[in-house]
């Protein structure tokens, strides 16, 4: 069965406070860096999924996100399926 | 000046232990999910950078990664610059 490399980007939903991002943004002027705004820190989860095609790989991972990987009250998940390799 | 949306994916370098990823992977069979392996958990940092072009935006963010956003001993950073919007 082919194996698909999948990236899940988990972001805090708009309006949810992001203390990590706020701390980074507050520190930038002290480092002499200007022109950077809107810093938000999320998670990037990479996994390998064995599936018959990329639609099935996406379905498996979206199910995992809803049940387990994210908290849908405060987080959004974006699933990207990359090229397959044969096993 | 145009503003660029930038995504920084911070991953643990190969060989660095990833307890979060290992815990997720160990839990999957208990949830009835098979065929998933190689789970690695990193950070996805999104920011908006004002710069004259996307090369300059990338340069600013790569400098930030090296100085501040990542620990280059244990982490790798991948910078992706997305389309610009005018401010």
Write the layout of secondary structure elements.
The structure is a homodimer of 87-residue chains.
Chain A: E1 2-12, H1 19-27, E2 36-50, H2 54-69, E3 75-86
Q: Can you offer a commentary on this structure?
A:
The structure is a homodimer of 87-residue chains. The model of chain A has no long low-confidence stretch (mean pLDDT 94). By secondary structure, chain A is an alpha+beta fold. Chain A has one domain: Phosphoribosylformylglycinamidine synthase subunit PurS (Mth169, Chain: A), CATH 3.30.1280. Chain A is 29% helix and 44% strand. Chain A has helices at residues 19-27, 54-69, and strands at 2-12, 36-50, 75-86. Chain A is built from two helices and three strands; from the N terminus they run βαβαβ. The termini of chain A are close together. Chain A is elongated and about 50 Å long. In chain A, strands 2-1-3 form a three-stranded antiparallel sheet. The interface between A and B is medium-sized, with 34 and 35 residues.
